[in-house]
Amino acid sequence: MKSWHWLVLIIFILILLGLRGIYPDVQEVFTLPDSPALAYWAETNSYPIVTSVEGDINGDGRLDMVLIYQIAPDKCQICVILNLEDGFMISGSSRAPVENQSIKLKDIDNKPPLEIIVSGSKRGKYGYGILRLENNQLIDLFGEGMDECC
Ligand SMILES: [Ca+2]
Ligand SMILES: [Ca+2]
């Protein structure tokens, strides 16, 4: 190999190493999809995911994904990605807290679907809401302080 070939090779390797060095920072800003449902989200939406929880929302034995995503610096929304036999389906969205978000799944009435309990805060004001997926829309069953934290 001619000496300049080696030089090109070394520069190429250095560039690759440099890119690897930058990559971890990018991961912290944007949650990289680590499941097919989140990958589907990333393919069809540009909004970054804040948090997500897996569970069988509609009771068909297949795991679905509930996720909170950010649509503006002070605005978040929550939706469900149903994992249906013929592909994923993203539900209508509902408002979600802006900070310290948490999603819990609980069947509060002993029949499908699982109810979704979302909580969080905004500037120290805490709130939570209970949502249910009906006809692919997230219906507000109950909420307290959601106006202050969303
Ligand atoms: Ca399911
Ligand atoms: Ca239920």
Report what the structure shows:
- The chain is an alpha+beta fold.
- The protein has two domains: 30 residues; 117 residues, no CATH class.
- Helix content is 27%, strand content 45%.
- It has three helices and nine strands, in the order H-H-E-E-E-E-E-E-E-E-E-H.
- The mean pLDDT is 90.
- The site of one calcium ion has 7 residues, from loops.
In short, what is this structure?
With 150 residues, this protein is of the alpha+beta class.
Largest sheet geometry: 5 strands, antiparallel
Total strands: the figure is 9
What is the mean predicted local confidence, pLDDT? 90
**SSE class:** alpha+beta
Low-confidence stretches: none
Please work out how many helical segments DSSP would assign.
3
Strand content: 35-45%
Total number of domains = 2
What gross morphology would you assign?
elongated
Backbone CA Rg: 20 Å
Helix content range: 25-40%
Summarize the helix and strand pattern as letters.
Answer: HHEEEEEEEEEH
Bound molecule kinds, no repeats: calcium ion
Could you tell me how far the N terminus lies from the C terminus, measured between alpha carbons in angstroms? 62 Å
